[in-house]
UniProtKB/TrEMBL annotation:
<comment type="similarity">
    <text>Belongs to the UPF0065 (bug) family.</text>
</comment>
<dbReference type="InterPro" id="IPR005064">
    <property type="entry name" value="BUG"/>
</dbReference>
<dbReference type="Pfam" id="PF03401">
    <property type="entry name" value="TctC"/>
</dbReference>
<dbReference type="InterPro" id="IPR042100">
    <property type="entry name" value="Bug_dom1"/>
</dbReference>
<protein>
    <submittedName>
        <fullName>Tripartite tricarboxylate transporter substrate binding protein</fullName>
    </submittedName>
</protein>
<keyword id="KW-0732">Signal</keyword>
<feature type="signal peptide">
    <location>
        <begin position="1"/>
        <end position="23"/>
    </location>
</feature>
Length: 327
């Protein structure tokens, strides 16, 4: 690149050098497949988690940041930017357009927010890097709750007030409760929280009757016996030993299942080299013991995709979500 700038400096006025040099960089980015200059972060990279610490998104973001850091050799710090059911973090991330030294731990809110709120972005505003896998939810109540199954919960909600915690208005848990209302005639009052961990605290404190959480967010409480699962909002039972005895909602006559994806995205407008750099690091992470541990510790389905394949998944899932949300 320094030689190109030298040639340009000899051919044009000093005032034009910056513009032409930037153009040359852009051409290098577009032609990375034919041997252009490779991308390398110049400093530390920041991973934004658009939800509060302690929840599933935070767990995913920190695991992914550590995995990509190991794979790339670049320092990656994590910053929680909660608020607006994820809208604050995503909106701040939008402002980093073209800056490949930022990443974001993404999930279904990427699709749900533009369908339910007035925001300046949709999934096409960003660069998909890696889909880590799929995360279904468990419907969980306190250990001393009178409800023993999701059928009990649905039937009770038709005649009495049942309060459900949701981690943001656009989260997977709210989608699950909405589907239960549409398909089973349930009726829930909702109390919003900023993360699954806060929702769990609300359940244990008696502020709500039921929560819908990812298994990785509730494993400790399940093992301690302070909560009990009513059903899994999944297509089939989990294979993990600690969850395999939990029936699906469908087994109880409630045909509801919806997966939340976990992934990582980069800002829009980054170079092809930068996109490929992070995809290569993501593939290395997916082949590591750290990735396997994350998936197994959080009891997820390891359905991985990268780049354009991840983008195709987002397009398809967005159409599905439009149907669910009646958009």
């Amino acid at each position: 690149m320094s030689k190109m700038r030298t040639r340009l400096a000899g051919a044009v006025a000093i005032a034009a050098i910056s513009t032409l040099a930037l153009s040359a960089c852009g051409m290098n980015s577009e032609n990375s497949a034919s041997g252009g200059e490779e991308f390398q972060p110049e400093g530390d990279v920041k991973m934004i988690v658009p939800f509060a610490a302690g929840g599933g998104s935070d767990i995913a973001g920190r695991a992914t940041a550590a995995g990509l850091e190991e794979a790339s050799g670049v320092n990656i710090s994590v910053e929680n930017q909660e608020g607006g059911s994820g809208a604050v973090g995503y909106s701040n991330f939008l402002a980093q357009n073209g800056n490949a030294e930022y990443l974001l731990a993404s999930e279904t809110a990427l699709l749900a927010l533009p369908l339910t709120q007035k925001v300046e972005f949709d999934y096409t505003s960003f660069t998909p890097i890696m889909k880590l896998g799929d995360d279904y939810t468990l419907l969980v109540v306190k250990e001393d709750s009178p409800y023993k199954t999701c059928s009990d919960l649905v039937n009770a909600s038709k005649n009495e007030r049942v309060v459900a915690a949701i981690s943001g208005a656009t989260g997977l848990d709210n989608i699950v409760f909405t589907l239960m209302e549409e398909k089973a005639g349930a009726k829930f009052d909702r109390v919003p929280f900023e993360s699954g961990s806060e929702a769990t605290t609300g359940l244990l404190g008696g502020k709500v009757d039921v929560i819908s959480v990812n298994p990785g967010e509730i494993t400790g409480q399940l093992e301690a016996g302070t909560v009990k699962p009513l059903c899994a909002a999944a297509e089939e039972r989990y294979k993990y030993d600690s969850l395999k005895d939990i029936p699906t909602a469908k087994e109880q006559g409630i045909d509801v299942s919806f997966a939340q994806f976990r992934g990582v995205i980069a800002p829009g407008g980054i170079s092809d080299e930068a996109k490929q750099y992070w995809i290569d690091a993501a593939k290395k992470f997916a082949d590591s013991d750290a990735y396997t541990k994350y998936i197994e510790d959080n009891m997820m389905q390891p359905n991985v995709s990268y780049g354009d394949d991840f983008a195709a998944y987002l397009k398809s899932n967005n159409e599905d979500l439009k149907t669910v949300l009646g958009k």
